[in-house]
Amino acid sequence: MIRYFIKRILMLIPVVIAVAIVIFTLMYFVPGDPAEIILGAQVTQEQKDALHEQLGLDQPYIVQLGRYLYDTFIRFDLGTSWINSKSVSAELGARLPKTMIFAIAAMVIQVLLGVPLGIFAATHHNKFGDQLTMVIALAGVSIPSFWLALMLMLLFGVRLKWLPVYGVEQWQGWILPVICGSLGVLAQMARQARSSMLEVIRSDYIDTARAKGLPRRTIIYKYALPNGLIPIVQTLGNAFGTSLGGTLIIETVFSIPGVGMYLQQGIATRDRPIVRSSVVILSILFSLIMLLVDLAFAFIDPRIKAQYARGGRLKKKRAKYNTRGKEAA
C-alpha cells in the first residue's frame, strides 16, 4: 500500500507542471500588448520597450516559460499583479480560505443529501419515490447555476428578505451560494448512487441473502451499501472539482472575495500573473483532493489491497529465492 501511495503522490507533480505550462502558453498567445494593458492605450513605443524589458517580455517564449516555472515551483514566487502591483501570493492567501469553505460545504451537502436520495431511489425502484427522485435529479442537472443563483437572490433576498444577497460577513451569507454550488453535483451524485446500488442489489450474493431470510434493512445496509459506496467514492474528487469550477460564477454573482472571483477579475483585465497563479492553485487543490479520494478508495476497495499485497509477497519470494541461489553458489 505504501508503494501505491508514493506512486499516486509522484503522479501529481507532472500533472500540476503540465497545467502550469498550458495556462502560461494560452496567456502568452492572448491577443493584446501587456504594455498597453498596464500603461493604457496612449503609451509611447519607448515606454512599451522599457516595460517589456522590465517584465522580461522581450525574451523568447521558452525563456519566459522557464523563468515562470522556476519562480513558481522553485522560488514559490507567484509575482505581482500588472494592474494594481499587489502580491499575487498575498491575495491568494487571503482569498483561498473562503473558496475552500464554499467548496467543502458544497461537497458535504452533496454527499449528505445526494447519496441517501440515490439509495432511497434504488430501494424503491420503479415506484413513485424513485421516479420523483429522478425527476428532481434531472431538474438539478439541467438548471444553470447562474440562473438558479439569480432566482434565489430574487426570492429569498429581494422579495422575502430572509437572506443577504451578497457578502459572507455573516454565516447566513453562505446559505444561498452553497445551495447554488451543490445542487447540480448533488443531482449527479444521487443518480450515481442509484445506479451503483441497483447494480449491487441485483447481484447473486444479495439474492442469496434474501433466500436466507435476512431482514431487508440488514441486506441493504450491511451487504449492499459497502459495495455500492465504492463507485460513489470515486465521484467525490470530481464533485469537489466541479465545486471549485463553480466558484468562478458563484463567487462573482454573490460577491464572495475568493479565488474564483479573483480569477474572473484577472481574466477581465487580462492580468496574466493573476490568471496563471489562480489556475495553478486551483489545480493543486483539485489534485490533492483527488489524491485523498484515491487513498480512501484504496482502503475501501479490497481489490487494490489484494493487488499491492500480492505484489509485495512476490517481491519477498523473489528476494528469498535469490538469496538461496547466492548461498548455493
Number of helices, counting only DSSP H or I runs of 4 residues or more: 13
* DSSP summary, beta strand count: 0
CATH topology of the domain at 93-269: MetI-like fold
Tell me what portion of residues adopts beta-strand conformation: under 5%
**Mean pLDDT across all amino acids:** 83
CATH-level-4 superfamily name of the domain at 93-269: MetI-like
Determine the fraction of residues in helical runs and give it as a percent range: over 70%
Query: Termini separation (Å)?
Result: 34 Å
- Rg calculated over all Cα atoms: 26 Å
Structural class: mainly alpha
- What are the low-pLDDT stretches, counting only 5+ consecutive residues below 50? 325-329
Q: Which architecture of the domain at 93-269 per CATH?
A: Orthogonal Bundle
Largest sheet: none
Which CATH C-level class of the domain at 93-269 is it? Mainly Alpha
Polypeptide structure, described:
It is a single chain. With 329 residues, this protein is mostly helical. It has a domain at 93-269: MetI-like fold, CATH 1.10.3720.10. It is 80% helix and 0% strand. It is built from 13 helices and no strands. The chain has helices at residues 2-28, 34-39, 45-55, 61-73, 88-123, 128-142, 145-159, 175-201, 204-211, 216-253, 259-269, 272-300, 302-328. Helix 5 crosses helix 8 (175-201) and helix 10 packs antiparallel against helix 12. The radius of gyration is 26 Å and the shape is globular. The two termini are 34 Å apart. The model is unreliable at 325-329 (pLDDT under 50).
